[in-house]
């Protein structure tokens, strides 16, 4: 997991939007989270993600060490439907409950299968998405745009947002900061 942390750190230093959003060092306490799997996590090592030269090394590190990650899927089927629950998963790389402890920022590695729809949701923490691989249509109440590898998208506190995964699976690094860091996103009605 240390290699994945180092790649996240390098991306946060080399990408201007990520650097402006937060900074963290790699000298973090290891929470010693054990590996867990979900229905979706087993497919990640064999998925070919459409990357960029900036994101390719981190994707390779995630695939190489995927079986050491504490994969989770925390939505209920009644909230998101069975297909979404079966083909989405994430792990918390950095954060209060992550592989590496940090109480000021939280970093997730998140996966969605192709053509999944992530309905309107929100959370108190501010957020930046960084696309590692694949492509998705991102929506807020003010804009809709397609994001691909090395693109970023910022969401304000409690700003509702939604996403449609396009024809390839999506792999992202998501960073949170501010209040509500230890909470989960909620589906908006
Ligand atoms: Fe979000």
Any chance you could write out the topology, listing elements then pairs?
Layout: H1 2-14, H2 16-21, H3 56-64, H4 77-80, H5 82-87, E1 88-95, E2 100-101, E3 105-112, E4 117-122, E5 126-133, E6 136-140, E7 144-147, E8 152-155, E9 161-165, E10 170-177, E11 186-187
Parallel strand pairs: 1-2
Antiparallel strand pairs: 1-3, 3-10, 4-9, 4-11, 5-8, 5-10, 6-7, 6-9
The structure holds fe (ii) ion (FE2).
Residues 123, 127, 155, 161, 185 line the site of fe (ii) ion (FE2).
Gist?
This protein has 189 residues and is an alpha+beta fold.
Q: What does the model show?
A:
The chain has 189 residues and is α+β, with helices and mostly antiparallel strands. The chain has a single domain (2-187), classed as Jelly Rolls (Sandwich). The protein has 5 helices and 11 strands. It has helices spanning 2-14, 16-21, 56-64, 77-80, 82-87, and strands at residues 88-95, 100-101, 105-112, 117-122, 126-133, 136-140, 144-147, 152-155, 161-165, 170-177, 186-187. Strands 2-1-3-10-5-8 form a 6-stranded mixed β-sheet. The chain has a 5-stranded antiparallel β-sheet with strand order 7-6-9-4-11, with no helix packed on it. α1 (2-14) packs antiparallel against α3 (56-64). It is globular and about 40 Å long. The structure holds fe (ii) ion. The site of fe (ii) ion has 5 residues, from loops.
